[in-house]
Amino acid sequence: MYYEPINCRALTSKDYLEIWSICLRHIAEKINPRSFKTWFEPIKPIKLESKVLTIQVPNKFFYEWLEEHYIGVIGEGLRIALGPAGRLEYQIVVDDYKKVKASESFNRVPDDNSIDIASKKIKNPFVIPGLRRPKVDPQLKPSYTFENFIEGDCNRLARSAGLAIAKKPGGNAFNPLFIFGDVGLGKTHLAQAIGNEIITMFDDKNVIYVSSEKLTNQIVHALKSNSIDELVNFYQMIDVLIVDDIQFLANRPKTQEIFFHIFNHLHQIGNQIILTSDRPPKDLNGMQDRLISRFKWGISADLVAPDFETKLAIAKAKIKDDPIRLPEDVLEFICYNIKTSIRELEGVLITLIAQSALNNKEIDIPLTKEVIKHFIAQMSDEVTVESISKLVAEHFEVPLEKLHSKTRKRSIVIARQLSMYLAKLMTNKSLKHIGNNLGGRDHTTVLYACRSVQNLMDTDQLFKDTVFTLEKKIRMSLHSV
Ligand code: ADP
Ligand code: MG
Questions:
Q1: Alpha-helical runs (H) found in 338-442
Q2: What's the predicted TM-score (pTM) here?
Q3: Which of 191, 244, 404, 479 could pair with 439 as two cysteines, CB 3.0-4.6 Å apart?
Q4: Ligand 1: distance of its center to the CA of 190 in Å?
């Protein structure tokens, strides 16, 4: 690969952007696009002084990860861009919290402390009955493992952070790990996978998984029965504390206060805390600021809706041990249509398998359609100009309203023309109707669009593939009414 010989002329400090983009071009060629997106896109080049390039990474975890996994390829990129004397320095984004933290450690019991954390009575609310010596039951579901947590763009950062924590609980910069995302996207699974991995790797670590509701109930009960010190002391001796759905602590000041003391203590002694939430820390209304700021101390990682391939991999993994087989086209049909939650995806699979086992029905597309319609209301089979343009806009990641607008931007024009072409191909609507529904254009524009798409398909194989993919997606999708 040939690069512009930037180092033929004298470098100035203004060249930092260009130097970093040369590095990035090299790195992008050497690693897979997903890793590139996760680990290199968030990096900002900051400055260049002599031959030292400074880049900013979002947190210490990032830095450690880059050093461990990508140092070779970064070094190569740097040598290409800066020559053999090139060096790299990292700048880690630091919140003001470090200052807060330093001052707080002089004042171990800040604010309105009403809990005697000096007393060391320990009562275990998770005693396994029947054992002579009380043993902490981690409350984990053994099936939630990393092995069956499928990796995808949607969860890469959270999963990697989780794995790193499982290797070295508490011994990382990412404490707490704050996992957030919409319902059904795998927060509980991932948080428990970390716990399960830790109990297999470390005999001596006490891990506890607790939902926020359960924790709240325990606190309410302990306050009533005057045993709050014991409860707090119990949690303060846990090595890895996993609290699920922390958003439920919102607007519960007393519970928050008690959780604050547990959190502080564990954090100070370097024990690991893992939290999940349906939203990022900054959006936790009704949560005390001091807690929110602590939630940001470590690393926040979000889980987003999986793409088609990841959904398909998850679906296959979920049914791999089931004696009932689902045809590939059925699996694809489900993944095209379930857009948001993996829990919903599982719901559809389970219902289909049950229908097949109990009612002896063959699992085919018509049956699957019926089942999916129970999960997603207001879906129809009918392909319309609107449903086509919606899917095309989604595919090209352009706003739908742009297809209706007058803009002549190349990417929008292509998406608009493609919508017209597919509408002509897949609906029996007139050219006039199609034009009307795509920004009030006349039938000659639609005709012209269809010809342009056809021409492009004849000359550009990649474009042709895209058209076929979209056509399949539209055929395989139920459409909102
Ligand atoms: P949340 O806690 O975010 O609401 P869950 O952790 O309960 O979601 O996940 C919902 C279902 O989806 C679970 O059965 C879980 O096993 C499954 N799931 C989520 N993400 C994945 C994944 N990446 N691989 C495999 N299964 C997943
Ligand atoms: Mg959950």
A1: 342-359, 365-375, 385-396, 400-404, 410-426, 431-436
A2: 0.71
A3: 404
A4: 8
